[in-house]
C-alpha cells in the first residue's frame, strides 16, 4: 500500500514551495526534520508554557489555538499538542499538515476515547470525527481559504493575489491533509 504522503509535490499545485505543508512532505528528510524541529521548539518553549501559566488565552490566542491532550500511541503518556483550530458549523476543525504522519494523529487513532482539549481557560472532553470524504474536505478547504487567506498562505502556499479558488485543483492537498471535527 502506498502512503499518500510519498508523492512528489508540484509547484503548480498546492502545497507550494516554502509553505509548511510543502516542507513537511518534502522528499528530502533533512528539510522535513528542520521544519518539524522548528515547530516543536516553538510549541515546547513558547506555546505550551504560556498556556500553562494561563497567559496565552489572556493575550487572545485562545481564539485560534487549542491544546489537544491525548495519550501517546507508543508510551501511553499524556501528550499536549498546541494546534490552530477554526470554528465551522458549530464544531471545531483541526488540521494536520503532516497528514497521517503527525504524531498527534497517531495518538488520536490509537486512543480516541482519551481525547480532551484545553480551549481558552476551559478543558473539555470531546467527541472526534475524522473527515475522510474528498468532496467534504474540498468544501472545508475552500471555506478555509476564503475566510482565512493569510493562514492558508502559510499552511499550503495559497496566494490570494494570483490564485483563483474556482480554478485551483485541490486534489493533492486533499490527499495530504488530515482534518478532524471536534464536537463539544
| CATH superfamily placement | Electron Transport, Fmn-binding Protein, Chain A
The low-confidence parts are 1-7
SSE string, helix = H, strand = E? HHHEEEHEEEHHHE
Gross geometry: globular
Roughly how many Å apart are the termini?
A: 35 Å
Query: What Rg do the Cα atoms give?
Result: 16 Å
Descriptive overview:
By secondary structure, this protein is of the alpha+beta class. It has a single domain, classed as Electron Transport, Fmn-binding Protein, Chain A (Pnp Oxidase, Chain A, Roll). Helix content is 38%, strand content 23%. The chain has seven helices and seven strands, in the order H-H-H-E-E-E-H-E-E-E-H-H-H-E. Strands 5-4-1-2-3-7-6 form a seven-stranded antiparallel sheet. Helix 5 packs across helix 6. It is globular and about 45 Å long. The termini are far apart. The N terminus is likely disordered.
SSE topology sketch:
Layout: H1 20-24, H2 29-52, H3 55-58, E1 65-71, E2 78-88, E3 91-96, H4 103-110, E4 116-119, E5 122-125, E6 127-131, H5 134-147, H6 149-156, H7 171-176, E7 178-183
Antiparallel strand pairs: 1-2, 1-4, 2-3, 3-7, 4-5, 6-7
Amino acid at each position: 500500500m502506498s502512503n499518500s504522503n510519498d508523492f512528489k509535490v508540484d509547484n503548480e499545485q498546492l502545497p507550494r514551495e516554502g509553505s509548511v505543508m510543502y516542507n513537511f512532505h518534502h522528499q528530502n528528510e533533512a528539510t522535513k526534520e528542520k521544519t518539524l524541529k522548528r515547530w516543536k521548539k516553538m510549541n515546547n518553549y513558547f506555546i505550551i508554557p504560556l498556556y500553562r501559566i494561563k497567559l496565552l488565552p489572556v493575550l487572545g490566542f485562545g481564539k485560534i489555538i487549542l491544546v489537544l491532550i491525548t495519550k501517546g500511541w507508543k508510551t501511553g503518556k499524556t501528550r499536549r499538542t498546541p494546534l490552530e483550530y477554526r470554528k465551522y458549523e458549530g464544531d471545531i476543525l483541526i488540521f494536520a499538515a503532516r497528514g497521517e504522519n503527525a504524531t498527534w494523529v497517531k495518538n488520536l487513532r490509537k486512543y480516541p476515547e482519551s481525547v480532551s482539549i484545553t480551549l481558552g481557560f476551559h478543558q473539555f472532553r470531546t467527541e472526534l470525527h475524522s473527515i475522510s470524504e474528498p468532496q467534504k474536505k474540498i468544501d472545508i478547504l475552500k471555506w478555509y481559504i476564503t475566510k482565512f487567506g493569510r493562514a492558508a498562505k502559510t499552511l499550503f502556499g495559497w496566494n490570494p493575489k494570483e490564485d483563483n479558488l474556482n480554478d485551483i485543483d485541490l486534489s493533492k492537498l486533499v490527499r495530504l491533509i488530515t482534518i478532524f471535527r471536534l464536537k463539544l
